[in-house]
């Protein structure tokens, strides 16, 4: 990446790094078909050729898990919407810190011309969706300005850019990630050997999170199944 940018967890620099990566991809691979955003804790559930064939045959323009967050909870379907409503609409991040304080903010999300969406930062974007996100960043500078004073903006910035003005896109509400959760915990559980077969039998493209030091046999089993 030319002119690399230091990205801090929970800050706008992390979200902008992903957008800069999309722009880099479009510039250097103008005929790209898909861009998948993964981290070092993602691992493919199948051979890469199978993932490529899956996406090549897809009729969708993007896959991600997302929720719309309105100013009032009347249409909520998941507790996460209430948490993110407080995070993005009713709190203000103190400059130079990760700490947020309660603050009734004036926000640009009127629910008509512009809506707030939250979701995973692990996006799967087809070419049309990639171009849409980049165009939206130029069209809606107020969104970046607003999220710059929020905590963990990467879970709201990209979904908001993607899903507004997106009538021409087919977006599937599916992260395509196998992620085991423990009830009551805020973070995913690490993958165990028992998860490998479940992940491989699913339609998910990647599994997360992996602990390479504690359970390296999990990755070995994924590789064995993939013929690596």
Short description:
The chain is α+β, with helices and mostly antiparallel strands and 228 residues long.
Structure write-up:
By secondary structure, this protein is α+β, with helices and mostly antiparallel strands. Helix content is 37%, strand content 14%. The strands form 4 sheets. It has a 4-stranded mixed sheet with strand order 1-8-3-9. Helix 1 (12-28) crosses helix 4 and helix 7 (193-201) packs parallel to helix 8. The model has no long low-confidence stretch (mean pLDDT 92).
SSE order, one letter for each helix or strand:
HEEHEEHEEEEHHHEEHEH
Physical arrangement of strands within the biggest beta sheet: 1-8-3-9
Radius of gyration (Å): 18 Å
Structural class: alpha+beta
Give the overall form: globular
The helix fraction, in percent, is 25-40%
Largest sheet, in brief, is:
4 strands, mixed
Which blocks of ≥5 consecutive residues have pLDDT under 50? none
Percentage of residues in strands: 5-15%
From the N-terminal CA to the C-terminal CA, the straight-line distance is: 29 Å
Annotation field: number of helices: 8
β-strand number: 11
Q: Mean pLDDT, as a whole number? A: 92
């Amino acid at each position: 990446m030319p002119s690399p940018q230091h990205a801090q967890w929970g800050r706008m620099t992390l979200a902008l790094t992903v957008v800069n990566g999309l722009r880099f991809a479009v510039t250097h691979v103008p005929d790209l078909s898909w861009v998948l955003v993964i981290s070092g804790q993602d691992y493919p559930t199948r051979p890469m050729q199978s993932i490529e064939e899956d996406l090549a045959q897809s009729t969708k323009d993007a896959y991600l898990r997302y929720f719309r967050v309105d100013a009032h909870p009347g249409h909520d379907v998941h507790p996460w919407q209430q948490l993110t409503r407080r995070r993005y609409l009713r709190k203000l991040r103190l400059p130079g810190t990760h700490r947020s304080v309660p603050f009734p903010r004036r926000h640009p999300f009127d629910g008509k011309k512009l809506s707030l969406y939250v979701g995973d930062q692990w996006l799967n974007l087809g070419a049309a969706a990639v171009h849409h996100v980049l165009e939206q960043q130029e069209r809606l500078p107020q969104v970046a300005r607003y999220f710059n004073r929020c905590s963990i903006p990467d879970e709201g910035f990209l979904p908001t850019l993607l899903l507004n003005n997106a009538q021409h896109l087919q977006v599937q509400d599916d992260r395509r990630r196998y992620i085991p959760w423990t009830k009551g915990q805020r973070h995913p559980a690490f993958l165990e050997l028992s998860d490998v077969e479940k992940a491989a039998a699913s339609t998910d493209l990647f599994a997360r999170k992996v602990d390479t030091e504690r359970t390296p046999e999990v990755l070995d089993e994924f590789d064995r199944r993939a013929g690596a």
